């Protein structure tokens, strides 16, 4: 079990400001329901640009609830400029600390606050402050984590491994397809900082680490889903995506005509699951995830 502070447990057991602000002036939504972490933050802002009230709804773990709860208290009464200076480290510190594996929850809080403030400026027809303008690209599509979030985490916490980045930002915690990109970002940041990252060789930086190799069973499942099964669905105008594999549960997403088909469960259980059980393992269970 994680070692949580008393304040984390208090905000988890008795979360503050749960719900939606009525007639919100700014709304920020981050994360992904499909991947198990999502946060919605709503703000009420007065004529002087001061946050009167903040409320939240979250789909996530106890740390996500606690981080969101304490954030609503931290921003209340602050101007937008003051709130914009709140970092995920501030959120974690206010809670008396978070386990390394749960730091991504405080990052989600910071990102939701940023999104809500941007939404407010857009509604007001005002220019968005430079520090709030997102100009980077999304690296982890499972958890909607952008390049800047990963870079900032690597710089602030001196991260050297993909696993550490996942603990702090959640990036790479889903299908793992972005691990190679995360490795590149880590290497680039350490090169920019001019600090020995443990990746430097006599000839300079070591080449980027290769993409992690899938185990044989995972590779077999991916090949079957993305080729044989997908080919059959495409004949009817549909398609399928492999989202992730967790032990014996294979998470997939139907697209195209299959996404809106009322018989999608029959497709999942009667076709996809039966094929995987026949060709890979009888213990596999297919779970449909919706966009």
Key words describing this protein structure:
single chain, alpha+beta, Sufe protein. Chain: A, Arc Repressor Mutant, subunit A, GMP Synthetase, Chain A, domain 3, three-stranded antiparallel beta sheet, 19% strand
Q: What is the CATH topology classification name of the largest domain?
A: Sufe protein. Chain: A
Q: Number of DSSP helices?
A: 10
- Report strand %: 15-25%
Mean pLDDT: 83
SSE sequence, one letter per element: HEEEHHHHEEHHHEEHEEHE
Which CATH architecture of the largest domain?
Alpha-Beta Complex
Apparent shape: globular
Provide the structure class.
alpha+beta
Determine Rg (CA atoms, Å). Answer: 22 Å
Low-confidence stretches: 196-206
Approximate helicity band:
40-55%
Largest sheet: 3 strands, antiparallel
Strand order in space, largest sheet: 1-2-3
Q: Count the beta strands.
A: 10
Query: Which CATH top level class of the largest domain fits?
Result: Alpha Beta
> How many domains in all?
3
User: Gap between N and C termini, in Å?
Assistant: 32 Å
